[in-house]
Amino acid sequence: MPKKFYITTPIYYVNDLPHIGHAYTTIAADVIARFFRLKGYDVFFLTGTDENSQKNVEAAKKVGMPIKKYLDYMAKKWKEAWKVLNISYDYFIRTTSAKHKKAVLKFFKTVYNHNDIYLGSYKGLYCVSCEAFVTKKDLDHQGRCKIHKRKPIMISEENYFFAASKYRKKLLKLLKRKGFVLPEKRKKEVIKYVEKEFGDISITRYKAEWGITAPINKNHKIYVWFDALINYLTAVGYGWNEKMFKKYWPADLHLMAKDIIKFHAALWPTMLMSAGLELPKTIFAHGFLTIEGHKMTKTLGNVVDPIKLAEKYPVDAIRFYLFKHIGFGEDGDFSEEALKNTINNELVNDLGNLVYRVLSLAEKYGYAKLGKKELEKKLKLKKIEKHLRNYELHKALKEIWNFVKETNKYINVKKPWKSKKAKEINYNLLEALRIISILLYPFMPSTSLKICKQLGVKLGKWKDCKFKRFEGKIKKGEYLFKKVK
Ligand code: MSP
């Protein structure tokens, strides 16, 4: 039986269309999912939409659409975006689905039966855009939410609370576990938050207009985060397919940006502890993208639409650029100029020319099917795999690229066009390209398949990343990438 790997992205709010920030997380998850598939894992890759948020309701009103119709329309739009970006998700979850509702009710009742839900009263400031209660430190000097520049509302009502603080000790132990929160530097920040601020949390809203009705009181709707997090259970069968649930749960990796790490690394584990379910293996929070040095906001008008971008540049180039040039885990800047440079230099020169050159040489001077494996020592496969398993995508890509460069160097040094050993040299080059097609597949799946086609081979698995007999039937094709202005 192959090992399983369950990976998730956040489920995104549909008050707007996806931008490059959402695409960044989703492509990262796709890269990781594709890598584990190459490794032979039984991968379950989940993404979807968070539909029970008040801000979606506001967005629907703004465009004058009935909420349900609006949500259907937007979910379709998000799916379309992921199709354009070649996202190989296995399941797309919508929190307004019947399956999810059933799962949430089951979960809520379980936690309630474990005496972890009680009625209390709440008075405090709530930011609808954050979908969270805020305190003074979250507000600017004008009393607006620092992130959304929006005034919070005062809420004073009777609410049901989740007794998260019962699990604080256990949570702190979990947070200290190596590899639970990644990158390591985020760990401290979450621990500090749990020690200083984390406590029982209100999980229903009295007479809210949208959301899942609490099973214990029909006047209350379940708080959107308490509902949303459960999507990770729903998707793999919680409440509707026990066999599947047993197979895939717990999640191996919850991926997101740093903005929502607290919900995932603090609230979520305590919910699972209360429900008596296993805990996810890793919560990984990457950094935030800025655009040409600025925060991406509607007011600045600099929101980058990944679909429009993909109309101008090859999707693989966008995917590649995001992980070659931004340290995964760090904040990073997106710039169109840098993207163009990446295309013109790394993709056209380093990779595209390499493939064209090797195919030309092999067609002209012939190639051996086997020979001395001269290039093999330049391939740092273990290192690449280690980086990918640590989710250090930029480091993996850098190492893969070193191999691309070494292969280029090998041509220049060996000069097959005037060597007696041309066939053996070309054998090394063709095998190097075949291996490169596998290594690059998680990042640039269509480009990899194009390389395979020219080599006349099927895309290999990770275990095929070693020099062996070259079995392809080569046929030179077009250049992989064209220069852009
Ligand atoms: N609906 C919640 C998540 C619930 S998960 C149980 C939510 N949705 S969101 O639409 O606001 O998405 C937030 C996520 O979008 C971030 O964690 C990150 O994955 C991605 N990003 C949004 N803006 C981003 C950047 N500027 N840069 C990088 N990632 C960004 O929160």
Descriptive account of the structure:
- With 485 residues, the chain is an alpha/beta fold.
- The chain is 46% helix and 15% strand.
- It has 17 helices and 14 strands.
- The strands form 4 sheets. The protein has a 6-stranded parallel sheet, sandwiched between helices. The protein has a 4-stranded antiparallel sheet with strand order 5-4-6-8.
- Strand 1, helix 1 and strand 2 (42-50) form a beta-alpha-beta unit.
- The mean pLDDT is 96.
Contiguous low-pLDDT stretches (5 residues minimum) are: none
Number of strands: 14
Q: Overall pLDDT, averaged?
A: 96
Distinct small-molecule ligands in the complex: 5'-O-[(L-methionyl)-sulphamoyl]adenosine
Question: Brief overview, please?
Answer:
The protein is α/β, with parallel strands linked by helices. It has helices at residues 20-38, 54-62, 67-84, 98-113, 168-176, 184-196, 224-229, 231-234, 242-248, 261-275, 306-312, 315-324, 336-365, 381-389, 393-414, 422-440, 445-455, and strands at residues 4-13, 42-50, 91-94, 117-127, 132-134, 153-162, 181-182, 201-202, 204-206, 220-222, 253-257, 282-286, 289-291, 332-334.
